[in-house]
Amino acid sequence: MAKDNTRRTDHSGIKMGFVMALFSIALGALWFRTGWVQLHEGDALAEQASRQSLAAEYEYGERGRILDRNGEMLATSVEAQSVFARPHKIENLDVACDVLSRDLKLSRRDVYRKLKSRKKFVWIKRQITDREAAALTRADLKGVRLTTEHSRIYPNGHLAGQLLGFTDIDGRGREGVEHLFDKLLSPSKAEFVVQRDATGRRLYLDAHGREINVNGKDVRLTIDTHIQHAAEQALANSIAKYDARAGIVLVVDVASGDILAMASEPFFNPNTVRSSDPAQRRLRPLTDIYEPGSTMKPLLFAAAIQEGLISPDTLIDCENGRWRVANKVIRDTHPARWLPAHKVLRYSSNIGTAKIGMELGSGVYYDYLTKLGFGEKTDLGMPGEAAGILRSPGSWTSVDLAAISFGQSIGVTAVQLAKGFLCLANQGATKDLNLILVPEHMRRNASIQVFSPETAATVLKMMEEVVQEDGTGRSARIEGITMAGKTGTAQKASKKGGYGDQYLSSFVALVPAEEPELLVITMIDEPQKSPYGSMVAAPVCREVTVRTLAYHGQLSETLHADATVSAPASALSGASLEKAVPMPVAPSVKDRVPNMKGLPVRRALETLAGMGIVPVLKGQGMTVTRQEPPAGQPWPGNRTKEGTEDVFVLWLS
Q1: Number of structural domains in the chain
Q2: Looking at per-residue confidence, does 35 or 255 come out higher?
Q3: What is the SS3 assignment for 206?
Q4: Is the dihedral of CA 370, 373, 374, 375 positive or negative?
């Protein structure tokens, strides 16, 4: 058979052309799609990609601190863990409810209700303990996370508690300085861009905006922690000794009008606000209105001397201790007949004082009282301050005028009384009281001349006799120190009408008597074992004055030694140990960091403050459990090599 040599047709060129045509169509389609995406859908897709890989996160600052006049911390913030959940990410609802209710000691029903919520975010429990945080970390529940917040602590416990006030769970100031300066103290927030990979892990934090200070501003008070402590301790001793209902101590620097101490008992610890009641939280020197009694008498004498009605030697008939005005009988504790005006004040004669007031007249005396600030707020700025009670003179009867002359039928607050006596101490010119050092715009210095300097000096000289051996205020005397003082024993009004059997015992001290530098006012409400200001309130004034002068180095060595001795334990019978906390004394600071483990946070902060270090506080509680740098290390320098500030961290529990 012959072989078929017929020539085969070559189609390879056609195939190559077909393949090239397909690639050209595909490439054209890709270019078209690329152009479409780039020109038409580009912005939308870029935004979607950004949402997937970039996210906005917020950094919240810390609430500003509250400091005393020397920079010691009265209120600060610490890091605390809080628990939140994203209900839509919970895998096993029953297991999550069991774990959260058990570890956080919450009602299972409440936890279940929160986890069944349609919200994307719910709080489970705010500011939990370290132990609770560790338990949840071990449980590793999907959809349940921990976050860091800042909680408020008050390192000195109840010290100036009513004045400081407190914050709620969200860090908003509710009372006291915390409320007054809430906007200034409150932190802000800054937004930062965070890039994440496909698994959601954060890759880096953009530095944009890092220069923004998101922390709240600090507030500095005129209060001195050491003097405040002395006032609170002396007040606690007296109230325990005389089984009194409440008490107040004010200490004022005469030159500046700065309030160095404002003590009020019952005490209030803002760290335990949930277990307190409104009576404890009340700032009594500003909110409580009292009939001051005989402590008002020097102000009446000043008005009468200024008007030329009396001099210190003017004789006044004190009616042997019993005198009728209209249908009321006025009595004296120490009956006498004719007394010079200076002895009327020394022996605190109600009859002699009433006669001076009736000669002065209601209209004139009312004008002096209003110039001194009675009947209106002192404008310290604190919430809840009362204006007192001072009726129009047109409504005064002769009995009213007599009673108001010796401090009854008039209602005053402790700060109003302090402002009145500050006028006498300031050569007859009024001076505003101040509670705030920073911000400076809160400070006030308005002044009017009410009495002449000669009148003020004359009254101070008469008040000096009150503290002499036969005066009613002799128990306030301090050896080697001149003092102008006045006692008060005011019968309190009864709820049933008239006056009852309870008293307000008070004492006012100006030290030294000639040119006062210090004003101390003590009020003891309803003492049970003795009503007299000379026995109950005057010793408190003495103790506070002695300790304040010792603190300023103005006492002899003998008195200085006596001033540092705490009251015996027997004087605190019936009082809580919290009321008898020792005077704040920082441990000795050497070349190396001391071991602070186990120390109260207050003492640790004082030690670090002495080295110019403000630590970062982590955890909750009032006791240091860990520190960084550890004990024995050199004190941190001001700057590290990288240029960032050294950080001193205290963990609390």
Answers
A1: 3
A2: 255
A3: coil
A4: positive
* Amino acid in the structure at residue 231: A
Tell me the two tokens of residue 539.
């010793």
Task: Please tell me whether residues 237 and 355 are part of one structural domain.
Answer: yes
**252: Cβ–Cβ under 8 A, 6 or more apart, which residues?**
258, 259, 260, 418, 422, 433, 518, 519, 520, 521
Please say which residue of 216, 240, 257 terminates a domain. 216
Class of residue 634 by CB neighbours under 10 A (exposed 0-12, middle 13-18, buried 19+): exposed
**Domain range enclosing 611:** 601-652
Q: Are residues 569 and 638 in the same domain?
A: no
> Mean pLDDT across the stretch 12-25?
79
Verify that 574 and 611 share a domain, yes or no. Answer: no
Residue 312: asked if its preceding bond is cis (omega within 30°), the reply is no
488 and 420 assigned to the same domain: yes
**Half-sphere exposure of 143 toward its Cβ, with a 13 Å CA cutoff?**
21
Report d(CA 554, CA 559) in Å as an integer. 10
- Shared domain for 612 and 478, answered yes or no, is no
CATH number at residue 91: 3.90.1310.10
Q: Tell me, yes or no, whether 7 lies in a domain.
A: no
What's the confidence (pLDDT) of residue 603?
76
Give the C-alpha separation, 68 to 71, whole Å.
Answer: 5
Q: Burial letters for 353-370: b for 16+ Cβ neighbours within 10 Å, e otherwise?
A: bbbbbeebebebbbebbe
**Residue 553 φ then ψ, to 5°:** 70, 35
Percent of the chain with pLDDT over 70: 84
Closest CA to 438 of 29, 44, 66: 66
Residue 41 lies in a domain: no
Q: Are residues 80 and 118 in the same domain?
A: yes
Could you tell me which of 610, 589, 586, 594 has the C-alpha nearest to residue 650? Answer: 594
Whole-number average pLDDT of the chain? 85
621: left (phi > 0), else alpha (psi -120 to 50), else beta? left
The backbone torsions φ and ψ at residue 86, rounded to the nearest 5 degrees and listed phi first, read -110, 95
Structure tokens that stand for 535 in this block: 């026995």
Length of the chain: 653
DSSP string, 285-350: HHH--B--GGGGHHHHHHHHHHTTS--TT-EEE-GGGEEEETTEEEE-SS--SEEEHHHHHHTT-H
Q: Establish if 197 belongs to a structural domain.
A: yes
CA dihedral over 428, 434, 437, 439, signed as positive or negative: negative
Residue 330 tokens, joined? 């006025």
Phi/psi class of residue 538: alpha, beta or left (left: φ > 0; alpha: ψ in -120 to 50)? alpha
Of 258, 220, 250, residue with least CA distance to 69: 220
Residue 338 in contact with residue 318, Cβ under 8 Å? yes
pLDDT score of 602: 72
125 φ, ψ to 5°?
-155, 135
DSSP H/E element including 126: strand 122-128
579's tokens? 């009321």
Task: Give the pairing type, strands 246-253 and 518-525.
Answer: antiparallel
Q: Which of 517, 550, 580 is the last residue of a domain?
A: 580
Closest CA to 133 of 148, 119, 122: 148
Residues 232 and 187 placed together within one structural domain of the fold: no
Contact between 410 and 395 (Cβ < 8 Å): no
496-516 mean pLDDT: 91
pLDDT digits (tens, 9 = 90+) for 620-649: 667 888 888 888 888 876 433 333 446 788
- State how far the Cα of 74 lies from the Cα of 68, in Å rounded to an integer: 7
Q: Is residue 370 part of a domain?
A: yes
- Dist. CA 54–CA 47, nearest whole Å: 10
Separation CA 551–CA 260 (nearest Å): 12
3-state secondary structure of 629: coil
Distance separating alpha carbons of residues 185 and 165, to the nearest angstrom: 13
- Asked whether residue 190 falls in the same domain as residue 139, the answer is yes
Query: Any idea which residue has 């802000």 for tokens?
Result: 188
